[in-house]
């Protein structure tokens, strides 16, 4: 097969979507070198990374870098042109991973990765421009994609609920996995945690933004301290996202500004250290397509308290404490309970490592390659106009 694969979000600033595409590209090239891979450093006109590597960072016998564009304008002109499919050699598969969906694939099988539609659940979780751009891409996929890859069963169900016209037998769940290959890695302590002992802090990983629910977590933590909980700092590891300009003021009003450590962006090495050495990983997100920080924390033995929302229970299984993300008192009580019961904490740590072992990139890549085989074997999807 000739596989065209979107890697536009896999640059140095990659987040969850980028890690998914990056890891699948590596795994597919590794387990199926008989195929020809064309990797697209720009794809469409919605997402554009001007800092994508100039040269192909993926090695393989039959791996080529697709057209790289230096500006969003030239990328838009290329990918929206009528002859875009012919310009890329009419591959058997064209796989979109960045929310954008092309309209003009007449022979290539169009595969579309669907992450989530949190922007439909609550419009205040993102900006209007991002919400409109994401929805346009997802909607177009429901009309033009031959197959959809959902990253969780919860995402699959939500997609079909919003787009009941999409054929149910052409959407398949393929789980993400951890970005970290070496589960024995010890990592490197971030400078922001100098003086804070191992197992002496609560951890929350992710961009600080409304959907990740750090406001309620801060309230629960303030109540935990007020109730006499052990005064371990709360470490928020992640950059500031949109619509959270007043978050520092929120911490000050709760009286916990001095007890909250905001690391900003951390390296992979630093993140491993945080997961391995936290007292517990707290992940109260209101909505997720998957919930990668839960899985990655579990890989390194982080005892986990997380949300009952959307896809996260699929990730955590029975290896975590699951709570309503809006129940601030429930989170306070769980933190107090875990501090008072070290045996429960240690049992969660053991269970988390076992649970994380059930997610494997080679298995996911194999499932994706099977989907490609199925897509090529069947006619292109017929869309009623």
TrEMBL record:
MF-aspect GO terms: glycosyltransferase activity
Pfam families referenced in this protein's UniProt entry, alphabetically: Glycos_transf_1
Keywords: Transferase
Domain of life: Bacteria
Record has Transferase as a keyword: yes
InterPro entries: Glyco_trans_1
Domain Glycosyl transferase family: 201-351
An example Gene Ontology biological process: lipopolysaccharide biosynthetic process
Protein name according to UniProt: Glycosyl transferase, group 1
